[in-house]
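Input (structure):
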């Protein structure tokens, strides 16, 4: 074999090896060691109570693995908070199905407490189509409990588990 061809072949093998190593490291870097956890609680402080009577807040969770749909964000209904605070328990998992109107094919998106999650609040009777997250993402399984003030809070903080 001509020396030029040997050099070319060696470079191709080295590039292929580098691509495989990059792919492997990328997969390892993105894999989480956090396991889903059941019973994760969320202490919600109703920020509307600070200026007068408490307004009810519909608390929604927004999984980080959002599909791009015309109907707005996928959300998980966590509960209604009418008092100055409430303890909510997050579901261990949730699913969302998107059906392609032209083919009928269905794609299922699954969220667990080991995945990213953001929170938002709606004042009834606002439509869920208008709902958006107002907090940064957090991974619920990283702590037994979390706390946040809504609708104004943007930071969800780890805390001890609360009880309802």
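Output (sequence):
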């Amino acid at each position: 074999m001509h020396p030029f061809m040997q050099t070319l072949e060696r470079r191709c093998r080295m590039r292929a090896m580098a691509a495989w190593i990059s792919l492997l490291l990328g997969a390892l870097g993105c894999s989480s060691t956090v396991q889903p956890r059941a019973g994760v609680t969320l202490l919600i402080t109703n920020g509307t109570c600070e200026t007068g009577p408490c307004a009810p807040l519909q608390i929604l969770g927004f999984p980080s693995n959002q599909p791009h749909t015309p109907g707005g964000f996928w959300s998980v209904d966590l509960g209604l908070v009418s008092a100055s605070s409430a303890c909510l328990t997050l579901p261990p998992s949730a699913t969302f199905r998107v059906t392609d109107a032209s083919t009928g094919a269905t794609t299922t998106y699954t969220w667990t407490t080991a995945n990213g999650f953001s929170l938002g609040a709606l004042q009834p009777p606002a439509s869920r189509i208008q709902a958006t997250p107002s907090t940064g993402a957090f991974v619920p399984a990283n702590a037994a409990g979390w706390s946040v003030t809504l609708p104004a809070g943007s930071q969800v903080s780890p805390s001890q588990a609360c009880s309802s």
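Notes: The first helix runs from residue 3 to 30. Strands lie at 41-46, 57-63, 76-81, 85-89, 93-99, 106-112, 117-122, 145-150, 157-159.
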